Task: inverse folding
């Protein structure tokens, strides 16, 4: 196992920054949509997400917390008006890092319902907790493998923590949150409390940040599935699919910028993502194909 890969290198605060985060520029608004790009393989997704947010006309900042990117990668994100913030792994213990490293976590909690791409690195998921360090009053986090199809700025008025359920192949998913979309109110005290709860002897967060956030916010507020509609709903629960309601479409597991073995089942959703990624406007959703019942 490559310990250098999973050992955090903590940046000290630069002017305008704080430990573990280095913003490239100052904020322009007091609210922000935030995503995370932890390696170059997520760049196509982040670019499509940024394009889709711009199409909604939101006045909020668009923030990309990033790790492991080169200058050329950052240049691509700047072209979409993103505020870039370098983000380190959390300052967790060696035991925590070993337990939640990719091979160790997948051995204990294997993904059996879909195919995680080989560039998925579970430890990076916990960087999402750095939202509570950011210099904003309100944040909406959206995973970089999602696109926004209708304005969602109303979520800034929602309480902390709002998230949609992890529904995509059965009703049991309504009892679990999916952290692909959630609301947050940054607060250094909350962040410190999170770190204290996160890394404890013997702890194991089976679904990484999702399991932790659900534990930390046991009274989390449920958003409709259409605020974080998981692509497998198209295959497994077509009765839930309603193009008149969908706001954020989340390509969990296989990614639309890859060739994969479920592409023939998800072709309409892949074509929609690729149109937005290519710079086209969001297509007429009422004219989109519907899943087979």
Result:
């Amino acid at each position: 196992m490559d310990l250098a890969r999973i050992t955090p290198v903590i940046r000290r605060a630069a002017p305008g920054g704080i430990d573990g985060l280095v913003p490239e520029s100052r904020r322009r608004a007091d609210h922000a949509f935030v995503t995370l790009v932890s390696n170059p393989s997520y760049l196509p997704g982040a670019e499509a997400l940024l394009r889709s947010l711009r199409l909604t006309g939101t006045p909020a900042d668009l923030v990309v917390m990033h790790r492991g990117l080169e200058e050329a990668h950052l240049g691509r994100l700047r072209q979409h008006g993103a505020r870039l913030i370098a983000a380190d792994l959390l300052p967790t213990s060696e035991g925590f890092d070993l337990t939640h490293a990719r091979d160790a976590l997948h051995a204990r909690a294997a993904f059996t319902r879909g195919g995680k791409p080989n560039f998925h690195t579970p430890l990076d998921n916990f960087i999402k907790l750095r939202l509570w360090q950011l210099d904003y009053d309100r944040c909406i986090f959206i995973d970089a493998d999602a696109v926004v199809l209708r304005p969602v700025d109303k979520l800034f008025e929602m309480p902390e923590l709002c998230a949609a359920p992890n529904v995509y192949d059965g009703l049991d998913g309504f009892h679990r949150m999916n952290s692909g979309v959630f609301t947050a109110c940054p607060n250094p005290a909350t962040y410190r409390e999170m770190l204290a709860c996160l890394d404890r002897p013997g702890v194991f967060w089976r679904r990484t940040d999702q399991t932790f956030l659900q534990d930390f916010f046991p009274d989390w507020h449920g958003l409709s599935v259409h605020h974080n509609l998981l692509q497998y709903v198209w295959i497994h629960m077509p009765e839930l699919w309603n193009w008149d309601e969908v706001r954020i479409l989340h390509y969990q597991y296989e990614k639309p910028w890859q060739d994969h073995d479920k592409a023939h089942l998800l072709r309409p959703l892949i074509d929609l993502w690729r149109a937005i990624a290519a710079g086209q406007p969001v297509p007429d959703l009422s004219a989109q194909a519907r899943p087979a019942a």
The longest helix spans residues 43-55. Confidence is low (pLDDT under 50) at residues 1-16. The first strand starts at residue 21 and ends at 23. The chain has one domain: 3-287.
